[in-house]
Backbone:
């Protein structure tokens, strides 16, 4: 059932304790959202714990440093930024059909929770949570502000993507006015600009691997485990490369393919008008109009053919 | 003399016609500012012309397309985003000592104009012009909004840099609310993400050329004319590479050196705390705390030694 702020407030104020689920391959928005909700619940005197199928990447330490919370049998289950229970990984079996409240902004949200606070016009789940906290009359803490800013900035591509609205900028202005002592530019630097020497080299290598299809309208980069081990990089280090696939002026769709232990994770990006969420849905995935994904098993060459065909249908 | 909005308004409303000078190596902010002022003057029934030492790069065609204006002998001279008359290039001799109004946000502004509207807390000169238009009660046109958004976005690194304030976000929110039909994400894509195949290759090449000094605290990339001709790139195509010099986590200062016909253009970037404007001032240049520059003649190796020494003094 879709709910509004008022019902979400009622739910949060009345829960005894909660486990907060974020999605696998966690990004700034789900981590920020998870720890922001934890902080808000703490202000209400409610114990909670943030969980994720994967470890949180090291560069988010400044958000997770307070700790995810000790283990306990939760009375309430909250999912943040999780469009589909499949994205819970190992937690799907335990909590997939027990989610009481889901807070999300993905248009592909499967409406799997008992109550869903969904705002598809928000650039980030963290933007929804800011509005919710404001609605509830809760003054967010400095740490909560850091969580929310990071989620909004990362999910909007630092306010670059079409998901960025006037309201996104207004919320950001309010957060910045409230906590002028947060080093926002430093957060941005670590989220967007800082790279290890290895990553800079990797990016150069990936740029050499761009394959173009459909008269350059589709660009694909595919990274096999062989290439990963040759480069000495682990899965963790492959977040954030998808935009490389839409660098070229003619590119309408880009796909960054990364081999995992038993399948290929395909991250789609749209340069402008093409709705890649719709393409991904035909392949069993989903996401946003401009950034979506799906996971496919099989042989890489066959997968590429399948992807090219799916994109051809959508754009030609 | 430094002036406020009121005096700037009086000046603009009373000028008969004006030439608007932007700085050499024009960027989104000076081009946006120049054409925004031209648009505002047009709304007031005042003829104007935008001039620049260099051609405006092609990717700004959507801002300059109305034309820079026909030639005429101007009664008023306005400089936008020009901190120093030296930056006027060939127009320094003609207009350098005749500037009636300068609108700028650079702390290094030399106060060379008769009247200077300087707001060093603005992320862009375009942010100052938005505030000025609002103060004057002028409803900006759609084209003016595109100019101002582009200037603000490009000069703030798409809201990433420390120069971005709550007010920067508020102004942006207002512009976006007023003209929801502007394709802001498309502008951002062309300003920040789209690269030619050659540029992607060039970036990979430049990344291989990063030299580290002072225990990795300083990174330098230097591009000689030899390398440029080898790569078949012209001067125009070298804008925007300076951030590559502060990609590494340890980097505190980065310098992107580009050889020109008779000197080397050195673009400094600060990763966080170091004020590179101060360093550049010791070398005859200037700019912002986080992004500044200077031009030095001589032998490249000697120049590098000089630069390393100047940075060492500032950070060690």
Residues:
């Amino acid at each position: 059932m879709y709910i509004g702020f008022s019902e979400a407030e009622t739910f949060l104020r009345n829960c005894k304790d909660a486990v907060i689920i974020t999605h696998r391959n966690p990004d700034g928005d789900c981590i920020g959202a998870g720890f922001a909700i934890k902080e808000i619940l703490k202000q209400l005197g409610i114990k909670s714990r943030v969980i994720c199928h994967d470890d949180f990447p090291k560069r988010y330490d400044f958000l997770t440093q307070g700790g995810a919370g000790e283990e306990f049998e939760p009375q309430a289950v909250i999912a943040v930024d999780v469009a589909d229970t499949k994205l819970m990984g190992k937690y799907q079996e335990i909590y997939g059909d027990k989610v009481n409240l889901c807070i999300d902004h993905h248009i592909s949200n499967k409406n799997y929770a008992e109550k869903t606070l969904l705002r598809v016009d928000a650039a980030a789940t963290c933007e929804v949570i800011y509005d919710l906290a404001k609605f509830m009359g809760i003054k967010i803490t400095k740490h909560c502000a850091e969580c929310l800013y990071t989620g909004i900035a990362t999910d909007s591509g630092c306010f670059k993507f079409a998901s960025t609205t006037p309201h996104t900028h207004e919320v950001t202005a309010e957060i910045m006015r409230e906590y002028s002592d947060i080093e926002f530019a430093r957060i941005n630097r670590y989220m967007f600009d800082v790279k290890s020497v290895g990553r800079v080299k990797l990016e150069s290598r990936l740029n050499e691997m761009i394959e173009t299809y459909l008269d350059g309208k589709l660009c694909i980069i595919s990274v096999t485990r062989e290439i990963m081990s040759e480069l000495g990089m682990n899965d963790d280090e492959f977040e954030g490369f998808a935009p490389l696939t839409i660098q070229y002026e003619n590119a309408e769709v880009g796909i960054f393919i990364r081999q995992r232990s038993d399948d290929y994770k395909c991250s789609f990006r749209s340069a402008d008008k093409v709705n890649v969420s719709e393409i991904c849905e035909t392949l069993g995935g989903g996401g946003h109009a401009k950034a979506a994904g799906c996971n496919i098993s099989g042989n890489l060459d066959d997968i590429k053919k399948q992807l090219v065909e799916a994109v051809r249908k959508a754009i030609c």
Q: What stands out?
A: The radius of gyration of chain A is 19 Å. The first helix of chain A runs from residue 5 to 14.
